[in-house]
């Protein structure tokens, strides 16, 4: 759980900074938002800087902070990849997918949470719903959308 929490905190800030810094938005993260409708494939529609800020850096930092067992680390990576695909699907997941991606955890972001981010955040500047796993970051830092931010799918 600590690995998810620390990693998601890093992902939140890596994602948010790309919307707030015009250079990062224009040259890197805006590519991901050019797709009108998110899909599992759009999780891969990013460039190297985007991947570094939202995947490599949060995973590296959380792993150095938590020092997980190797099996825990690989389960965490598998969870991150599968959850990212589910969050970009735009579909209400089957209950088994919810179970496997830990959607039952407190403050767990829904598919709707990330859909709202893509729907209203296709530009630089203040956006909403940066968090991938726990919507609590958006709540605490004032970036949570009031439309479907933490409702269950």
TrEMBL record:
InterPro entries: Fatty_acid_hydroxylase, Sterol_Desaturase_Related. It is found in: Membrane. The keyword Signal does not apply. It comes from the Eukaryota. GO terms for biological process: lipid biosynthetic process. GO terms for molecular function: iron ion binding; oxidoreductase activity. GO terms for cellular component: membrane. This is Fatty acid hydroxylase domain-containing protein.
